[in-house]
Amino acid sequence: xxxxxxTLYYKTLQLLIHQNILEKNLKLYPNVTIQKGQRVINAxxxxxxxxxxxxxxxTGNKSIVEGKYICACDGSKSELxxxxxxKSRGKRYNNTFI
Length: 98
Prior knowledge:
This protein is of the alpha+beta class. The chain has 2 helices and 3 strands. It has a 3-stranded antiparallel sheet. The chain is globular.
């Protein structure tokens, strides 16, 4: 039981460290918006742009965002992958973070 707690602690710590690094660097770009607590419910992929319909998980409010690029950092079982039909390619690793 203690090993499980320790493992969970280290995985959570790694997630927070990587998330902070990613956010810190993305904030250097004024045209990048970070949105947390959003769930993708629809995606329309066009030739030059993509529109996402998002639902705020706290309020239930819907919004539409549009961009040339979309970066979903939620892994191979990504909700964005599911909504857009994008398959995960490549290898799977046993590591939680690489």
